[in-house]
Structures are given as C-alpha cells and as structure tokens.
Amino acid sequence: MALVGCGSALPSLSLSNDQLSHRVETNDAWIRSRTGIAARRVAGPGETLTSLATDAGRAALAHAGWQPQDLDLILLATSSPDDLFGTAPRIQAALGANQAVAFDLTAACSGFLFALITAGHYLRCGTMRRVLVIGADQLSRWIDWDDRSTCVLFGDGAAAVALEACPGAEDGLLGFRMHSDGRRAECLTLQQGQERHPLVEGHTAQRGGFQPIQMNGQEVYKFAVREVPAVLEALLKDTGTATSQIDWLLLHQANQRILDAVGTRLGIPADRVLSNLAAYGNTSAATIPLMLDEAVRDGRIAPGHLIATSGFGAGLSWGAALLRWRGPGGSGA
Ligand code: UT7
User: Fold this and answer.
1) Fewer CB in 10 Å around end: N or C, the chain?
2) How confident is the model over 137-164, as pLDDT tens digits?
3) Domain interval for residue 292
C-alpha cells in the first residue's frame, strides 16, 4: 500500500487550561508540566463525529486528488461513534462514496494504527484499490467534566489518510506489530452502566448507557513508557532498520512526558519526535493522522520519509508500524 493523501477537521471551540481551571480545581502550570497540553478542541452544536470525520475524509480525498466514487473502503477508527450500529456508512453517504463499503473499527487510542494495518491487508491482497482510513473521536461527550484527573487530557478531532494499492512498488507499510492485553482493561474504561429496568414479572433488562471515562493514570503511564519503546525496538529489529534511518517518530499524542521518554529511550533526537499535544490534547484515534496531516502540510514530512509510529491506550492495546510517506501523485522514495 502507498500513503498518498491526508486531511483533518477540528471543532472550532478551543478550550484553554485557564478556562478549565474555572470549572475544576486545576491550573495551567500543573497541566502543562504534567502533560504538555495547553488547550483542546470541544465539539459544539452542529459539530458531530460524523461531520468532523466527513470533513477530514473530504480533505484527504482532495489532497490525494481522488473522487469519492473512487473509494473501495472507508474504515472509521473510533470509540465514540454517533451510532453504535456503525457511523462509517453515514460518512460514506455524506461523501457520496457510493461504490465503497464502510464500517467501524474500535481499538481506542490504537484504533487508527490497527485500522491502517487492516486496510493495508485489503490493499495488498488485491481485493481493494483505494481506501480511506479515518481516525475520529468525540470523547468530550464521555468525559466527567468534574473529574480533573481525566477532563484536562482529552479533546475532539478527526483526521484521515488515503491509501492506495501499489503492486510491484515498495509497500509503504514496511512492518508492523499489534498487541492487546484485556487482563489490564480496567486501567482505562468507557463502559456500560449497570442500570436495569423492569421488563416483565420477575425480569429486568439492562438499560443502555455508558459511564464516563475512568482511568488509572499512573498505571497507563507506566504501561506506555514500558511497552511503546519495546514494541518499536522489536519492529526496528524485525525490519532491520537503524534509528538513524527514521525521519520522524510519530507517537499517539497522550502526554509530552511519554513522547520525551520514548524518544530518549530510542535515541531519537527531540526535533524528530512530532508533537502537537499542546494545541489539541489527546484526541484518541485521531492523534496520529492529525499529527501526520499537520506535518505533511507544513512540509516537515516529505515524500519518501520514513516514519516510525506507535499507538497505545485502552484495551489495553498497543502496536507500532514503520511507514513510508509517498504523498499525492508521486512515487516517493
Ligand atoms: O491515550 C492513552 C491514555 N492515557 C494516558 O496515556 C495517560 C497516562 N497517564 C498520564 O499521562 C499521567 O498519569 C497523568 C497526566 C494522567 C497524571 O499525571 P501524574 O504525574 O501521574 O499525576 P498523579 O495522578 O500522580 O497525581 C499527582 C497529584 C495528585 O495530588 P496528590 O495526591 O499528590 O496531592 C493529584 O490529585 O496531582 C493531582 N492532580 C491534579 N492537580 C491539578 C491530578 N490531576 C490534576 C489536575 N490539576 N488536573
């Protein structure tokens, strides 16, 4: 597969640390020093997961120079769908991608990475030619805005990547690894409540509805700084790649301290570790494509560049991939 286009869409409201400190007992200095976050976007009226993901998808199509009807597949990575039966088909309809099949994939902050790898397999085996992978989350609706330990971390956003089959040419997915460990699921949850309502005499039925995000921050932090460097080191070994060959380290944007720790452990200089946490916080499945889109558009990521990426989070789940950016209309490296 080749990575040929990208695009993103963000809600218009930017909520600063200072603004949040009027709601919960927190302050800008604490949030910046512990996380690197200065602001996050929050979806307002009229901004839905579907609308943000559609706008991101449209931008990626335009960047790749494709028409919606060129698409064979739309894969939406999200943990906060508008419709639990599937939000991707609504995006398909809004884009007018009538030839495509569209479905959702859920793996929290690893979702985009897992979706990208999944899409890569459809492209490699020849059943599909053009795919749009979208990472989008609107976690603002599942945050307890009175819980300072989580509400300062997350934001809303959507971003997409256009992928194309490239038979005979170098594959842009040079290697990957994926992991999950459900034994540690309770470290980070967005799960069903236990409420039940009377159904018939002697029976109750569960009432649907999710509880706000709950997180053991220290456990998730320790998990990330242990597993992310390990999975990246294993991937570099698998592919015979030296860290000096990597142009960019593109990690899931959860905490600047995690980005710094992973970069240091791998011996990658800070100026090659991409970060936009300060502006957007943790947008879950959107962070990796959002950062990719920003760095492609400002020219940091250029055709042929080698990108080591890693997603990690609830599940617990984590993984890594080695990618070659091609960009629109060229053969890249
Ligand atoms: O997508 C993947 C998902 N999540 C992550 O990757 C998150 C990983 N974890 C983290 O990033 C960090 O654990 C946090 C940023 C969530 C927390 O940082 P920490 O350095 O682990 O802080 P802590 O939980 O140990 O809390 C230290 C203190 C506590 O006060 P005491 O008990 O020492 O008096 C907290 O109550 O900081 C307090 N605290 C806050 N203070 C001001 C916690 N949240 C806040 C806050 N403002 N927002």
Assistant:
1) C
2) 999 999 999 999 999 999 999 999 999 9
3) 173-185+212-327
